[in-house]
Leucine-rich repeat domain-containing protein
Amino acid sequence: MFLYQKVNDHVRILACRGYGGTVRIPDKIGGLPVTELAEYVFSDGAGRSEMLSLAGNDFQMCDEEGNTVSNGEKELPPEVICERLVDLYLPASIRKIGNYAFYNCYELRRLECYSSIIDLGSGLFTGCLGIRKLDIHITEGNHSCMQGIVSELRQELYVNYYSGNMTARLIFPEMYEESVEHTPARIIFREMHGCGHMYRYCFAQSEFQFHKYDALFPHVRVQESDRLTAALALGRLYTPLNLLPRDRKIYEDYLREHLKAAGEAALSESELFLWLAKEYCRDQVDLDRMIDLASEHNNTELLSSLMDLRHLRFPVKKRTFSL
């Protein structure tokens, strides 16, 4: 359920009510496109109270499908604010998100949106340390908001990049700053740690640059764990959108050397794990290691498929006897 107001020929969302942590903003309400989330819309405190106060009585309510609901309805669902927001899905119609819209939404885990958002408010993700997954649909011909979003999120971020009917799985490593004081000179230096900040510069005029992203892989190998590095290489090879031949080879060489780490990264997705086994298990020894990994995690369905693959690729030779 949404509290909204009409602004000229579009709709602004002021608040949300519901019993679950998943919120899907409708693309239209009353035939008008939903283009804006108000400031502090999912937050709490003085800023949100002021925003609602300024709206006065100039608002209406609707259900999840955008159908008008009477303001006098009894027993309204609780407000979805702060820790109650877990997953958020924004339609392609959204063009603006107000300041501090997700302030202190520390349970927010996933955000799905389109790259055509023009105005990202300041302090948008302050306190949103739980976000790990971003699904972003690229709208061709428009200024992309992707860089603005990933730059605000400094934690390890898993991004599904959708462009037309193509997909790329990307990982942006964590980055963090440290203030170091040079006491004699009375100067404060800001030091960046981790290679995540370099990955957040892989853009040109807001457009994501795959070749710049892939060129940073040597830094990840040195500065990040095998778990993250293998997952990054696995994602690029599984969804090789705009992957150059030279970068593919580098990823593949790493994957073959770290097959166990790649297998552990793929365990949560049976299809991905099987693809890894089919593509990069060069001999029976490698395949047996993958089988052992699936067995250790009691994944019987995956184990059955791997055994079928083993039997197909390395059939047991029939014994022959001579008298």
